[in-house]
Design goal:
Helix content is 34%, strand content 30%. It has 3 helices and 14 strands. Strand 12 and strand 13 form a beta hairpin. The longest helix is centred in the first third of the chain and has 57 residues.
Length: 285
């Protein structure tokens, strides 16, 4: 009680000022309808700004959860689309002119699952992506890793029970094949260990009609990646005079420095393609 009295004694000037200021504002607000409306508008404006700021902060902190939900939804839709595509590819017209699917002929569809990035690096020569999916989720070596928008990020090379490690496209050991979108001209994709935004595509035929801005996608004979997954766009290129082949610098579509949620994709034809490659000595990924 003594402390309270002492506080009031030392601060009575400030307290008196605040009380008088409050009374003055109340009197001013009640003086005319105009002043009342004006003051209420000011109060609502202040509190509205505070509420808006709180909403933005809450929205910012809820983004990770929302992004994970969206990635899971994308995985579900991709699985449905892959199943429909597999069924569509096997449709035939019977003798009555009806479109039917022969029993037991539907090929396995690609399988998608959402995953969260646990660890990721971009500043080393051998970069890897650690994901929170493992053997218990059906993940195994050889599955591809892409962004929710369908851009190449890497491929799984090691699994534990609950996690998996993927070779990033920003890894000098990464090897794959790519082609110019809308054509059959292809080349080898690799990273030179320099910028995290660019990879190199080599051995492109001089007849490919290469141009800056052309989109580069995965080929259909990859054992890791499904066909037509986006890699990036051509930013520059030059021709090797001794071999008459182009070498292009490709700007990656995926921002590898900001990976948070990804999709792990199983190519249903991987085992068959890998077996043939082993017999023929091929090594396209």
């Amino acid at each position: 009680m003594y402390r309270l009295v002492e506080f009031i004694r030392r601060s009575y000037v400030i307290i008196l000022f605040l009380l008088l200021e409050t009374v003055a504002i109340i009197v001013y607000m009640r003086s005319t309808p105009y002043t009342r409306a004006k003051m209420l508008a000011r109060v609502y404006s202040v509190f509205g700004g505070i509420a808006s700021a709180e909403a933005e902060i809450e929205s910012y902190f809820s983004l990770p959860a929302e992004n994970r939900m969206l990635t899971e939804r994308v995985a579900e839709l991709e699985n449905t689309l892959a199943q429909l595509q597999a069924a569509s590819d096997e449709r035939i017209v019977n003798g009555s002119g009806e479109t039917v699917i022969p029993e037991g002929t539907i090929a396995p569809a690609a399988r998608y699952m959402a995953a969260r990035v646990v660890s990721n690096s971009v500043n080393r020569t051998h970069n890897y992506i650690i994901l929170n999916r493992g053997e218990k989720d059906g993940v195994h070596e050889g599955m591809s890793v892409i962004t929710p928008s369908g851009c190449v990020a890497g491929y799984v090379y090691e699994c534990s029970k609950h996690y998996c490690a993927a070779v990033s496209i920003l890894n000098t050991s990464f090897r794959s094949s790519g082609k110019i979108e809308g054509s059959e001209f292809s080349g080898s994709i690799e990273w030179q260990g320099k910028s995290p935004y660019y990879v190199t595509m080599s051995d492109i035929s001089k007849y490919a009609g290469l141009e800056v801005g052309k989109r580069i996608v995965t080929t259909g004979f990859s054992s890791y990646f499904l066909p037509d997954m986006t890699i990036g766009t051509v930013s520059s290129f030059e021709i090797d005079p001794s071999h008459n082949y182009y070498t292009a610098t490709v700007k990656l579509e995926a921002d590898m420095s900001s990976l948070h949620n990804v999709l792990i994709v199983e190519n249903p034809s991987r085992d068959e393609i890998t077996a043939l490659q082993q017999k023929t000595g091929g090594n396209n990924k």
